[in-house]
Amino acid sequence: MDINLNKKIKYYSKGKSVPLTSTIVTRNHKLKVPNSLQKRVYDDFQDFKYLSGGNLSETQIKRLNSLKGRIQASRNIEKGKFAEISRLTNLVDSRR
């Protein structure tokens, strides 16, 4: 069995931010939320921004839970990330 592991190795320039398992490591060795995840949280939140609560459909509940999961994943990387969006999604969730 001949496995070529070199195809999995990537080299980056010194001082460049690099992706690492859905996380960005900056040149200062700090973890940051990737732009793609930030955009998904923002875009998904736009769907819920104007909900007044009440009865949510099963699809809306699943999408709300996915959004809350993405917010939590972001907060695991950067504490306090999306604080206001988190507060508002919890408010929508508590009204159902």
Can you walk me through this structure?
- The protein has 96 residues and is mainly alpha-helical.
- It has one domain (5-94).
- It is 48% helix and 6% strand.
- The protein has a three-stranded antiparallel sheet with strand order 1-2-3, with no helix packed on it.
- β1 and β2 form a beta hairpin.
- α2 (58-77) runs antiparallel to α3 (83-94).
In terms of topology, how is this protein built?
Elements (H helix, E strand, L loop, with lengths): L17 E2 L4 E2 L5 E2 L2 H14 L9 H20 L5 H12 L2
Antiparallel strand pairs: 1-2, 2-3
Helix pairs in contact: 1-2, 2-3
- Distance, first to last CA: 55 Å
How much helix is in the residues? Answer: 40-55%
Mean pLDDT: 83
Q: Structural class given helices, strands, pairing?
A: mainly alpha
General form: elongated
Poorly predicted regions are none
* Tally of separate helices: 3
N-to-C order of helices and strands: EEEHHH
Instruction: Give the number of domains.
Output: 1
Major sheet details: 3 strands, antiparallel
Going across the biggest sheet, name each strand in turn.
Answer: 1-2-3
Using only C-alpha atoms, the radius of gyration works out to 18 Å
Strand percentage: 5-15%
**Total number of strands:** 3
